[in-house]
Predict the structure of Protein containing domains DUF404, DUF407.
Amino acid sequence: MTGEDGAVRPAYERLDAWLREIPVDELERRHAAAEIAFRRLGITFAVYGEESADEKIIPFDVLPRIVTSDEFAGLEAGVIQRIEALNQFLADIYGPQEILKAGIIPDELVLANSQYQPAMTRIRPPGGIYSHISGIDMVRTAEGFFVLEDNLRTPSGVAYMLENREAMLRLFPKLLREHRVRPVDTYIDHLQDMMREVAPRGVRGDPLGVVLTPGSLNSAYYEHSFLADRLGVELVEGGDLFASGRCIYMRTTEGPERVDVIYRRIDDDYLDPLEFRPDSILGVAGLMDAYEAGNVTIVNAPGTGVADDKAIYSYVPDIVKFYSGKDASLQNVETWRCREPDSLKYVLENIGELVVKRVDASGGYGMLIGPAATQAEIEEFRSRVKADPDGYIAQPTLALSTCPTVIGKNIAERHVDLRAFAVSSPDAVRVVPGGLTRVALKDGSLVVNSSQGGGTKDSWVLSDA
């Protein structure tokens, strides 16, 4: 909200004046109203591994994160460049593997990756799009925005982005109008357009799409049902679908209906017991055969997880350069690959000052924040890294930007990041003018994940009109 000189940044001047005028009790009342609305709507998530797996209301803060039109234009261009390059990378590693032949990335980092799916070497998705729906996590420091992580498998959080905006429209309509905030509900239009554009060839009329969920016990089930409702398609589980004649059908009360596009929210390993895990009861036997025949499109394509592995992340600037011939306009956070001897030595010697992450983990799990850890936790993580250096990367502890946040009867600064959502079709990559701001609600914490006690904010991109 303020610059390094302590002055309020221009984008926040109107909000700053509003905060000085609104009574604290009124702000607290509206904050409570938002929580009640979220509870009534069932906007929940579950945290795996807790003694109580009850679903929780995701904490929502009513003070928005504001991004200017010019700032967003730079982020949008960088996200588009990044996603286009990563889709080219996926097409390449499942095809001619030119980037491996050129020695840009070590072969084993790709071909031995647990997310690499050899079955995809036989399949080219429609339009060459592997990651149709992507989420790019960014953080802001004094030097600007940096990419912290790429999410190209089944990125979550878009339902919270849309519901956050709905809540703000109900609670603070005048404030939104005064700021001329760009809408985020165009995301659903982009998603519908993309699902039509990537449907198999020869489909007559509108293609039939579905959202495939592992079921109501999944931590993101609310989002699955929300998206199916907004898209106007059926929410299905594996048992609702079956394969016949290298096509996929949905069971209905009026008989089988052929499915053209499956927006899957199931991990690769569980998609098809004939191709992946034979013990899976979540997917559809024969799905990959129908996919290979070109009779159904899977969104996102299996095997995209290679591109959001945290070790591959460290090569994304090189990937952008290799496929586009240009430097990445959005830079990575400095990263040490523990698989490299010099980097491993540095990390082990400085582990108490670094953030150390498993390359295949997400949701804030498998991570050490050195400055906030106990000596016992540091030593335990040091042992883990020594035992499996290939499984870890490390990054500096960044001075993340903060936003004003309602904490009880007070307003306090809390660290935030920003997940930008993009939809990719053969014609274009479209980035939603907003995204999901995640906020670390614990004082001093840098962990914004809801599974680790974080919350969310509405993200306002200002119109330049």
Residues 213 and 265 are 5 Å apart (CA to CA).
